[in-house]
Amino acid sequence: MLGRKQGDLIGQSIWDYMATPEESKRLRKYLPYLVEVQPQPAPYLAHCARLDGRVVDLEVIWDHQRDQHGRLTGFISVISDVTARRATEERLRLLADVFENTAEGVVITDADANVIETNTAFTEIMGYTREEVLGRNPRLWSSGHHDQQFYRGMWLALEQTGQWRGEIWNRRKNGEVFPEWQHISAVKNEEGILTHYISVFSDISQIKEAQEKLDHLAHHDPLTGLPNRLLLLERLEQAIKNARRHNRMLAVVFIDLDRFKHVNDSLGHAVGDQLLRSVAGRLQESVREIDIVSRIGGDEFVLLLEDIEKTGDVLMLVEKLMHRLEDVHQLDDHDITVTPSIGVCLYPEDGTDTSTLLRHADAAMYRAKEEGRDTFSYYTEELTRDAVERVKLESQLANALRHGEFELYFQPQIDLPSGRMIGMEALVRWHSPELGLVSPARFIPVAENSGVIHAIGRWVLHDACRQGRKWLDEGRNFGYISVNVAGPQIQRGDLPAVVREVLDETGLPAERLELEITEGFIMRHTESTVSQLQALRDLGVSLAIDDFGTGHSSLAYLKQLPAHKLKIDRSFVRDIASDPNDKAIVDAVIAMGRSLGLTVVTEGVETQQQADFLLQAGCRQAQGYLYARPLPAGEIGDLAEQNLYWI
Ligand code: C2E
Ligand code: MG
Ligand code: MG
What we know:
Oligomer: single chain
Bound molecules: ligand C2E, magnesium ion
Number of helices: 24
Strand content: 25-35%
Distance between the termini: 120 Å
């Protein structure tokens, strides 16, 4: 142990073999204690030096030797070299220290992935104590953010390479989901048999947040928080790809504020900044959630509108934007009005790549400026013409009510088994002196956009109820009158009050009135719509969901609606006899209506074949040219004379 020859040791002092003078001192002090006090042999440790200078740890157990008088005559020692054991112990202590004090969470599991050890950082990061997770599977804290494929990939990597590292979302005990950087290794014993998994992870939520913040900064305008040019370009590129794939249109709208420089120069940059923020806010309010509003320079904003169905949608939005932007901006110390110049171009008509689309929208905007600012311009002539026409229609509509140009037509609804009329739908007609008879399908959307729908809607309601009262007074039982209601009338929130007022004014009993709301509108507006409908139902008015089948209803949502009736859209009826898809849809709607306790009516029945089909499918009510076209009130009276339809 000491690397010395036996002969060399004889006669030497043991203190000479101690590794250091201090060690020798320490043990010398210890000696009297051993001699006097300790009765039993006990081990102690000595650091000794070998001849070659290497230090070894020796465990010494010694006992005294005494003569018959009890006098100390010597010591007998049994010495063993514990250097290796000590080193192992030391190393283990060190490892345990690292395990406990590292900032990374560590989880050790057995081969079946049951947790057998965790460290303090694990508890700090995850919120679970060691005891809470011992014996559990780490699935306990999975976030649910990854699919099976992800975990399958992880196990496969562990199997094949013994390692997996990557980003993973887990869930803390308090429910919070956070990103981790995780390294898992499979541990095998000497025989190559898997014994443990060790997972070491760190919480990278802060790093991620910082990354996202940086990313946000790079892609957004700090003044308004809107996407900047960089992000716009990225999104536009993506949008073009989507549009191409799905054969859709998209619009790029370039907006520049007129004389913004003047505001900046005369009122200062602080006011200019406030104005830009106000404009940004209004732009965002005016568009749909999927649309993108970006600020690409001083007073230049670009909107990206995806999923455009028809050019009319863009025209209406642009008009709405003009109105919204021209309202007074109430800033801290100033009330300011600004006018925008707007240029619009469309994919694919006016361009098929980002730079062309932006350039053409910009060019259209410049043309608007040349035309005297406060206006909009479309890149193509055709759109410009449409837009001009629309504006004309809007101004003519505004006067139509005053000039008494509207008339209600009525179309009977039929009980299929008996062929009798059970009610009728009121459909508005516009006799325009300039345009002739204009279809509601054309002017109602314009009226909705300009706000004149509220006046028209009230007139329709009033006239329908007035006519109903008149028929009742004449002793004619028409059943009920169904009146179409436009989305904005509900959105404004006063429809129940208006309906009650009109019923009071005209004296029509509430149960004689039905309101039709399109499925498309109902689906887009969830919370407030339901309470309005409930209020209407409480008045005693019935509710029908119009154009059903076109609005992608969810059954769960339908169940919450206080509706009485579904009107299957006529697009499904047209080919019902020949198109199995249409037939399947109609069958499904009828079944669904039945299970929800709703009456089902089909619109647009034109042939006896369709009617037979529907009756067979279990639909009892219908409306369509087969029975009668929409007719003026007087001619409905004639039907009555023929005693054809009245109840
Ligand atoms: P809607 O409520 O779905 O009305 C049914 C439409 O189908 C009416 O068109 C009607 O004339 C037409 N129709 C009825 N039977 C047949 C048929 O057998 N074959 C075909 N091809 N068509 C049939 P209309 O009168 O042109 O009205 C169009 C839409 O305008 C209405 O669709 C409704 O959404 C809206 N509308 C009409 N009047 C008003 C109103 O007073 N207020 C509101 N907000 N919207 C109205
Ligand atoms: Mg209708
Ligand atoms: Mg309809």
